[in-house]
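Supplementary Methods, section 5.1.

A reviewer requested that the exact input to the structure prediction be made available. We therefore reproduce it here, unchanged from the version used in the analyses.
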Amino acid sequence: MPVGWGGLAREGSDLGGCEDYLGAVNAFEAEMRARTDGELSALTEVFRRRLADGESLDELLAEGFATVREAARRTLFQRHHDGQVMAGVAVHSGNIAEMPAGEGKTLAVTLPAYLNALAGGGVHVVTANDHLVRRDADRLGVIYRFLGLDIGVIVPEMTDGQRRRAYQADVVYGTGPEFGYDYLRDNLAWSLAECVQRGHEFAIVDDADSAFLDLAATPLLITGPGPVTLATVTVGSFLRLYDKLGGLTAVARGEAASYREMYGLEVIEIPARRPVIRLDRPDIVYRTTQARATAILGVIAEMHAAGRPVLVGAVAIEDAKHLSRLLDERGVAHSLLTAEDHEHEAHVISQAGRPGAVTLACAAAGRGVDPALGGNAEYRAEQELRAAGMIPGADPAAWHRARVEAIAGHSLDVVAGHDAVAALGGLFVIGIGRHKSQRLDGLRRGWAGRRGDPGESRVYISVEELTAQDPSQADELMRLTSSVPLEDGTESSSFTSIYDEAQRVLGQHDIQRRVLGYRFAAIDDAHRLLLYAQRRGVLERNRLEENVQDMIDEVITSRIQEAVAEKGRRRELRKALARLYPISPPVSDFVGNSKGLPAQLIIDHVQADAHAAYGRREQELTAGVMRELEQRVLLNVIDHKWRDLLTRTSTLRDRIWRSDLDSATQLAEYQRQSHELLNRTIAEVKQEAVSYLFNLDVEVTQAAEDTNDHE
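The structure derived from this sequence is encoded token-by-token as follows.
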């Protein structure tokens, strides 16, 4: 069996060591199938003991994956196919697995999730929306629980206590923003008991292009009274916190450079189980958006009458709404999805392949949902159970049994529907306009022709729309329109080539903008990590007393060195030190008469005096109260100065972005100036903290004294 991952980190069709590991996983299949349920589930503790004895996760991979595959076969009646196993290997290795649409990315996640959960640090599975969080945890939880693992979910309505318990689970499902907000809140906590997360060891990102690319620059903000930003992080910056990252997506190759630079991830292309036989028709061109809408209406009405399902993907939601009104006037039953209710829209998309179905959707609707030909039996079964009053989380075992029975009850109808739709040519996907990104167009086409099924796609373009979207191409369009006879409904290679070029340029621009944004964000990330690490150390009281003593020395050294360097300030030194701490009269006199003395001699005297004064203050307040005071003062000052730094760096960044400097110079200038702001902030934290610790009036309550006596 291969050890290590040297062959995996390669882009494209080179599967490297994935195929070698696949062979090893397959070799364990018969052994796992021969085990009883008890013997199979007991392997989890066996694997954990072997890890404790020094084996690596890589060495356990083949047996671990084979265990999960067998558990899925027994619980979900689904066996991970070879492509899913190879995708699991790629993700475990810290790569992006590109799997064709409909190949089962969500089930593939369970393989690396289980294996890495054995290490005990917890695995976070990041999905695109809250519906998918609940759905995947409900469906796949039976596998994890069968093997003795706990599963948790993070959704918006949870309390802190519920979140804390969820994060203790072996595998936790949530969205990038939910995980990110909990990270920010933990770094605003005033005690360890308030924190909910327990680390960031491994994140698996399903629908990776959504979180890694589309949401990468989305800021997560926690604000206080008024517009004051208390804490912020982008989704991309949060994901880069994890010790290891992996992900799965249907479209990655065109963005390989972004994944590599922004996350250190390579793309590994996983082959499809069956050839894709979908017919991707050439774009068809109309002069106006109204003419296009009228043509699309005719196509939908014709296919609906024949019983062939149609799924329309609109770039602009206004186009989908306009088409919906036209369908209403024609009396054509349809569903309109606007990405506002993820759970409802997932159910609708899941049935978009049923005979005669007409579904209008914007790009974000129905992410992570399979519009299978004939309908999706799993969604139909779950909807039926919920209508009967069953709740997945109330009794997971009972829900799972009822779900399996309900799926079986819908299977014959789904199979019959599949065959009927396939005979008509499969699901027909209509695109209203092209997206700026070829990646998003690819996702839309991927609604049809999944798992080797027939399907068809076509994009309908309007010259009017392109002119409005990309004025830079307007002149060329006008020239073509006047020089080439153009009838509505034309398959024009000239217009298609213009679209291709515009899309390529826009795509390159987006990649450059995204990467540049990452480079700026990486500077902010370094600042955040530094200050949050210091804050966490204060929260844990890690070397708290020693760090305060060091701060006293640093602040005194800085004050004296500045005064000595600037001769005019030496006379003010004694007053400045008296404001900092209760300087003793002898040392005050010594400082006042220190002209000509070396700075280090003055520093030594003042530091010794300050430490003595601090010792007297601690003796007066007691050690326990002093540690509490140190913690509270430092947390307060760090938070206050961090807010100031966020404001300063935001102003700096806006000013630099508006400048005429080229992007490389902008980045260098931002790095230089923001680093200066960071150093100034750290110095201010130390100065303010030391001043407060010496001079803050402290009232010790009886409860505090009782606590200190107990300690």
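Confidence is low (pLDDT under 50) at residues 1-13. These observations are discussed further in the main text.
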